[in-house]
Design brief:
This protein is of the alpha+beta class. It has four domains: about 130 residues, no CATH class; about 100 residues, no CATH class; about 80 residues, no CATH class; about 90 residues, no CATH class. It is built from 13 helices and 17 strands. It has a seven-stranded mixed sheet with strand order 3-11-5-6-8-9-4. A four-stranded antiparallel sheet has the order 1-17-12-13, with no helix packed on it. A four-stranded mixed sheet has the order 2-16-15-14. Strand 14, helix 9 and strand 15 form a beta-alpha-beta unit. The relative contact order is 0.17.
Length: about 450
């Protein structure tokens, strides 16, 4: 546990950095929000807070959401979803330099922008996979109406009246015609089509000969936010992704209000795109052990292809853990009634200090970069967002150096590197990350040689 800097000290340091030690232009809560965003962005980019937790497997249950089942040794959830639309709305108003509803930024407008941004993030990153079960009548000829919240279908399985559960393969018209040439034939569905069907419809092929149930894992729009702001609603996404939603909502509002500001909206869009790159590349699960035996996690598509009837096979001791989505896993075989547990090393949600006496859980060597990012975010609401560009660059450079040393557990390294090549030319505050990456490579190799030299007695 780090004990070098408390939240109260960090807030004072940031206030001094922005030239407002007396808090005349920025408030303490505003600085705390910027600090929390910076800490979350650091963890998202570096997978800094790796931790081990346990999922207690239940008899007959194949799928588990990590947000509600993965606990550390103290019984605390490692990846809870706690951020609400009200939390983000408060931060959004600070970015817009509006602390109350005005004709310029109405409450309903802000909530709508946050909802659009949240659903856009789910669609872009696949951060949340939602499970659903739909009854299917054989009289519909295999046409299934999907819930209106559906963005995309990730997986489907057919539950037949005989108790067999068959994992379905995604198909298009050409492949479906190749395997099932007789369009009027009936039987047990083997594939599903969405590319050639109307919106919010799915076609089973062949069409089922008997009624059954369709199990779906989809990307879906989240809960609607109260436009009046009277009720807080959970975002329903990992907490560390919440700053990205705020960045995108800020850009949307700035392009759709009386104070149209394309330059600052473009800055927020760049932050949104960088965050998407990192979120899409990042892995949540780094290592797995089932009942004390180490296992290599598989993709659910691999498991489905290898054994399409695995869900209805005889229950037993699970040997395979499959990744369904960043926060959802499945185990095969389906657990029997004996005790079983899966131990996972994951990137946990950022540990945020709750009071001014609590400590920031980052190394002192990264403190300046994180405080600098908080400073950069705070400066955005003024007219001098570009004046603190060096702090943004320092944050990215430090993340690259850290992930260069942690490549095995930080897939976001390549995303940062890819992003750098584009952003350097497009964004005024971007930096030539390639040079920093090369420096990180050289430094890492030097440290490796030095460690080998010392360890080998050369």
């Amino acid at each position: 546990m780090y004990t070098h800097t408390s939240r109260g000290v960090a807030v004072a340091l940031i206030a001094d950095r922005i030239g407002d030690a007396a808090l005349a232009h920025w408030t303490a809560p505003e600085i705390v929000i910027a600090l929390e965003d910076a800490l979350r962005l650091w963890n998202l980019a570096t997978c800094h807070e790796r931790a081990e937790g346990v999922v207690r497997l239940q008899p007959g249950v194949a799928f588990y959401e990590l947000a509600t089942t993965l606990l550390d040794a103290g019984g605390v959830l490692l990846r809870p979803r706690t951020v609400t639309d009200s939390d983000l709305a408060a931060g959004l108003r600070y970015l817009l330099a509006e602390t109350a509803a005005t004709d310029q930024f109405a409450t309903a407008q802000l909530r709508s922008a946050l909802q659009l941004a949240r659903d856009g993030l789910v669609a872009e990153t696949g951060a949340i996979v939602t499970a659903a079960v739909l009854p299917v009548d054989a009289a519909t000829a295999g046409v299934v109406d999907l819930p209106e919240q559906t963005i995309a279908v990730r997986r489907a399985a057919w539950h037949g009246s005989d108790g067999r559960i068959t994992a379905l393969s995604a198909a298009d018209v050409v492949s479906a015609a190749a395997f099932h040439r007789n369009a009027s034939a009936r039987g047990t569905p083997r594939t599903f089509l969405t590319s050639s069907t109307p919106q919010l419809q799915l076609q089973l092929s062949p069409a089922p000969s008997q009624s059954g149930t369709l199990e779906l894992h989809t990307l879906a729009a989240g809960a609607a936010f109260d436009p009046t702001g009277a009720t807080a609603t959970l975002l329903g996404i990992p907490d560390d992704l919440s700053p990205l939603v705020k960045f995108r909502a800020t850009a949307l509002v700035m392009r759709d209000s009386e104070s149209f500001d394309e330059r600052r909206a473009a800055v927020m869009d760049e932050m949104w795109r960088l965050g998407l790159e990192i979120a899409k590349a990042a892995e949540v699960v780094f290592s797995v052990a089932i009942d004390g035996v180490r296992r290599v996690p598989a993709a659910i598509a691999q498991t489905d292809r290898a054994a399409k009837l695995w869900q209805s096979a005889r229950p037993g001791r699970p040997r395979i853990l499959s990744i369904v989505g960043p926060d959802m896993i499945a185990v095969t075989p389906v657990p029997d009634d004996r005790p079983h547990a899966a131990a996972l090393t994951v990137n946990r949600a950022t540990s945020l200090p709750q009071t001014d006496n609590d400590y920031l859980q980052i190394g002192s060597e990264h403190l300046s970069a994180v405080l600098g990012m908080a400073q950069w975010l705070l400066m955005f609401k003024g007219s001098a967002a570009d004046q603190s560009d060096q702090h943004f660059r320092m944050f990215i450079d430090d993340a690259i150096l850290y992930t260069a040393r942690q490549r095995a557990t930080s897939p976001s390294f390549e995303a940062l590197r890819r992003y750098s090549a584009r952003a350097a030319a497009a964004a005024p505050y971007a930096v030539q990350f390639a040079a920093a990456t090369d420096a990180a490579d050289v430094r890492s190799e030097h440290e490796a040689r030095r460690t080998t030299s010392v360890g080998g007695g050369q």
